[in-house]
């Protein structure tokens, strides 16, 4: 397909069959380009990524995709978020990014069942000057979240823990959310496996959740190809 893409009016050939097939797979070079043109990350962010690789080895794959970090900061700022919730903190990169975007008096409450993981991140929250915005609740999130009473309406929630729990977390958080508040789910494409007929518990849970949220008249929903897929629901 030949399209005018240059400011000098020259036409270039790009490999796009038609508008319905637009889209790119993100190479490492393209990921760097995305990051270079997004909200700058601090040294604490980069050092936390490195520390996670060193301390966690192969488990570091659980960390959010790097381009999701600036997006979460940007979204928190866009919402003017003062109260945020995170389910699934691991070593704290997404928490660092969300806390960075909160108002100065904002608070992020993180729910995770593994304090060893979270401990890796705490020094980096401190170095970024954001530790006093972050509370951590340790335990199975279905139980700890059910007991949680925020001191006002929640603006933003990020869900990135066990996939079979997503539906429970969604139903518990939605009543806490202010109208216009947003719930973001990670791994909503599950490496593309949502399109396969596998009956893996995680994939089934993601497929069911995507269908449930998309059909839910309490929210407006968009599913975007960022990292491993972000499903986002804003409360009507
Ligand atoms: C994919 S990692 C989260 C990654 C994190 N958002 C980041 O940016 O690095 C998933 C986390 O969910 C936690 N988790 C899994 N099942 C849980 C449960 N039932 N309750 C609370 N936390 C859980 C794990 O301990 C792990 O830290």
Chart the SSEs and their pairings.
Blueprint lengths: L1 E3 L6 E3 L14 H9 L6 H14 L11 H12 L3 E5 L5 H9 L5 E6 L2 H13 L6 E5 L2 H7 L6 E6 L6 H8 L3 E10 L14 H14 L4 E6 L5 E6 L1
Parallel strand pairs: 3-4, 3-6, 4-5, 6-7
Antiparallel strand pairs: 1-2, 7-9, 8-9
Write a brief caption for the model.
The chain is α/β, with parallel strands linked by helices and 236 residues long. It has helices at residues 28-36, 43-56, 68-79, 93-101, 115-127, 141-147, 166-173, 201-214, and strands at 2-4, 11-13, 83-87, 107-112, 134-138, 154-159, 177-186, 219-224, 230-235.
Describe this structure in words.
By secondary structure, the chain is an alpha/beta fold. The chain has a single domain, classed as 3-Layer(aba) Sandwich (Rossmann fold), CATH 3.40.50.150. The chain is built from eight helices and nine strands. It has helices at residues 28-36, 43-56, 68-79, 93-101, 115-127, 141-147, 166-173, 201-214; strands at residues 2-4, 11-13, 83-87, 107-112, 134-138, 154-159, 177-186, 219-224, 230-235. It has a seven-stranded mixed β-sheet, sandwiched between helices. Helix 4 links the parallel strand 3 (83-87) and strand 4. Helix 2 (43-56) runs antiparallel to helix 5, helix 3 packs parallel to helix 4 and helix 6 packs parallel to helix 7 (166-173). The longest helix has 14 residues, at 43-56. The protein is globular. Residues 1-6 have low confidence and may be disordered. It binds S-adenosylmethionine.
Mean pLDDT: 93
**CATH architecture level-2 label:** 3-Layer(aba) Sandwich
N-to-C SSE string, H for helix and E for strand: EEHHHEHEHEHEHEHEE
Largest sheet: 7 strands, mixed
Number of individual domains: 1
Per CATH, the superfamily is Vaccinia Virus protein VP39
The CATH class, by name, is: Alpha Beta
Query: Strand order, biggest sheet?
Result: 5-4-3-6-7-9-8
Percentage of residues assigned to helices? 25-40%
List ligands, each type once.
S-adenosylmethionine
Distance between the amino and carboxyl termini: 40 Å
The coarse silhouette is globular
**Which parts are unreliable, with pLDDT below 50 for 5 consecutive residues or more?**
1-6
Q: Beta-strand percentage?
A: 15-25%
CATH topology, anyone? Rossmann fold
Class derived from helix and strand content: alpha/beta
Radius of gyration: 19 Å
Number of helices: 8
What's the total number of strands? 9
